[in-house]
Specification:
By secondary structure, this protein is an alpha/beta fold. Helix content is 48%, strand content 13%. The radius of gyration is 22 Å and the shape is globular.
Length: 349
C-alpha cells in the first residue's frame, strides 16, 4: 500500500469514526432528553387512558365497512353528543370529554373507517365525503333525538362533508356543532413553520413519498410498533404547544394512537385531506350554534384556517387557546370541556 493510499484510508476511517461518534452522541443526547422529560412530576400518570368503555356496537355501512361505535351515558338523555376523532387517532382521543359529559348526556363515540377498531376500507373509499356518509349513518342508527356534533381535525372535516351532502339534518336533528383544530381546505398550502422555499419543496415530494411508504406499509409498521424516543419527541413538539409542561403520559397516549394507525391508512387518507375543500358548505351550519376552537401554536391546522371558517360563519364563536397546538382536547381538556358545555347550554336554553 502506497503512502498516498494509506493516507486516504486513514482519512476515510477518521471520517467514518467521527460520523459514528456523532450519531452515537446524538442518540445519547436524545435518550438523555427523553429520560429527563419522563422523570418530571406527572399529574396524569394514574389517568385510566384507554380504559373507558361504553355499550359497544357495530355499524356496517352502506358500502360494507364495519364501524366500531360506543354509546355511553344515560340512554334516555334528551340530548346526544357525537364525537368525531381526527386523522391517525381513534375514539380514545376523546377521553377527557367523554369522561366529563357521560354523566349527564348520551355520548356516541366512533372509530372512523380504517382507524381504531373499525374495519379497513379500500383506498378508493378513503375520502372525506365517504366519512360524511358514515357519520350520517351513525346518526341515523344511534341518535334517536337531537344531537350536538363535535369534530377534531379530520373529524371536523367529516362534519363539513355531512353538511355538504345532508344539509337538511342541521337545525332540527343537529342542534349545534363544535369544530376543533380543523380546516375547511387549503391544507396543501401549509408551511408547517418552514421557510417558503423549503415548504414548497416538501409539498412537492410529499405525495409520492407518502404513496411509496403506503406501498411498503407492512415493512414500515414493523419499525414503528416498538415505539421510539423520536416518535415521543415528535408527538410532543408537533402535537402540544406547551411542550415543556405537558404530561409524558398524555404524550405516550397520543403517540400510541398514532403508532397504532397503519402506514397504509396514513397514506390512503393523505390525498383526501390535501384535496379537502368545504368552505362553500359551511353556510349550512349557520342556523345552529357553532363553536370554533384552535390552538395558537397549531402547525397542522393553523389559526388562519379557523379564522377563515369564522369569516364564513359570522354567528360562530371563535376561541384561540394560548400556548396550545393540535391535540388541544388532550392538552387543554378543561378548556375544551368548558367550551363544549357552553355550547350545550345554548342548545338547552
Amino acid at each position: 500500500m502506497t503512502t498516498t493510499t494509506r493516507r486516504r484510508v486513514g482519512i476515510a476511517g477518521a471520517l467514518v469514526g467521527a460520523a459514528s461518534a456523532g450519531v452515537a452522541a446524538a442518540a445519547l443526547a436524545k435518550r438523555y432528553a427523553v429520560g429527563r422529560i419522563r422523570l418530571r412530576p406527572d399529574t396524569e400518570a394514574s389517568e385510566p387512558f384507554g380504559e373507558l368503555r361504553g355499550r359497544e356496537r357495530t355499524l356496517v355501512t352502506s358500502d360494507g365497512v364495519a364501524l366500531h361505535v360506543e354509546v355511553d351515558g344515560p340512554e334516555d338523555a334528551p340530548l346526544t353528543i357525537v364525537l368525531c376523532h381526527g386523522y391517525c387517532l381513534s375514539l380514545e382521543s376523546w377521553h377527557y370529554q367523554r369522561k366529563d359529559l357521560r354523566e349527564n348526556y348520551r355520548v356516541v363515540v366512533w372509530d372512523q373507517r380504517s382507524h381504531g377498531r373499525s374495519q379497513r376500507a379500500r383506498p378508493d373509499d378513503s375520502t372525506i365525503d365517504r366519512l360524511g356518509e358514515d357519520l350520517a349513518e351513525v346518526i341515523e342508527e344511534f341518535v334517536p333525538g337531537p344531537c350536538v356534533l363535535v369534530g377534531h381535525s379530520m373529524g371536523g372535516m367529516t362534519i363539513m362533508a355531512l353538511a355538504d351532502r345532508h344539509p337538511g339534518l342541521f337545525g332540527d336533528k343537529i342542534r349545534a356543532v363544535a369544530l376543533i383544530a380543523t380546516s375547511a381546505g387549503k391544507l396543501a398550502e401549509l408551511t408547517l413553520g418552514l421557510p417558503a422555499m423549503v415548504s414548497k419543496a416538501v409539498h412537492k415530494v410529499a405525495p409520492s413519498t407518502i404513496s411509496m411508504l403506503g406501498k411498503r406499509g407492512a415493512l414500515v409498521d414493523r419499525t414503528r410498533h416498538a415505539g421510539s424516543d423520536i416518535a415521543f419527541l415528535m408527538t410532543r413538539y408537533m402535537g402540544f404547544g406547551d411542550s415543556k409542561n405537558v404530561s409524558p403520559t398524555v404524550v405516550d397516549f397520543a403517540e400510541s394512537m398514532i403508532r397504532a394507525t397503519p402506514t397504509e391508512v396514513f397514506a390512503d387518507f393523505y390525498p383526501a385531506l390535501m384535496n379537502h375543500d368545504k368552505l362553500s358548505a359551511l353556510h349550512v351550519l349557520d342556523p345552529v350554534p357553532t363553536a370554533i376552537v384552535v390552538g395558537d401554536r397549531d402547525w397542522l391546522t393553523p389559526p388562519d384556517h379557523s379564522k377563515a371558517m369564522a369569516a364564513a360563519l359570522p354567528k360562530a364563536q371563535l376561541t384561540e387557546l394560548p400556548d396550545t397546538s393540535h391535540l388541544l382536547q388532550l392538552e387543554r381538556p378543561g378548556m375544551i370541556n368548558d367550551a363544549l358545555r357552553d355550547l350545550i347550554k345554548r342548545v338547552e336554553e
